[in-house]
Amino acid sequence: MPVEMLHTVGWAAYLSAAATIITFVTGILFFTVGQPFGTIQDASSALQVFLMLPIALVLHVLFRARAPALSLLAMVVGIAGMLVAGLLQVLLVFRVVQFESTIRTTLS
After folding, report:
1. Phi, psi of 107, deg, nearest 5
2. Residue 97 carries which DSSP code?
3. CA distance 107 to 17
4. How far apart are the C-alpha atoms of 52 and 9, rounded to whole Å?
5. 27 within 8 A of 41, measured Cβ to Cβ
6. 83 in helix, strand or coil?
7. Residue 2, preceding peptide bond in cis (omega within 30° of 0)
8. Which of 43, 64, 76, 96 is positioned for an S-S bond with 91, CB 3.0–4.6 A?
9. CA distance 11 to 62
10. Strands (DSSP E) along 1-108, which ranges?
11. pLDDT digits (tens, 9 = 90+) for 6-53
12. Stated pTM of the model
């Protein structure tokens, strides 16, 4: 695996971690203060998830020699979950769906 790819994925992991902190702080602010922190939280959450996509790919590359089928399955399921979560956050940012409707769906 090229070193440049590992550097890029490393930066994606750092940026995803930073977005996680922003998501956490703005999530608390959203539930205590309200908007605009909900929108900021949704945007940073989407960024956090999308930045994890290259990490899933690199993990597959690193582990496919030991368990190719399981590694591929884990990558596909992980990427699918990340895409669903990220796209839902993007839909929240652009107000295509409302927060209340997502809570009802997830908690039922």
Report:
1. -85, -10
2. S
3. 26
4. 9
5. yes
6. helix
7. no
8. 96
9. 17
10. none
11. 899 999 999 999 999 999 999 999 999 999 999 999 999 999 999 999
12. 0.83
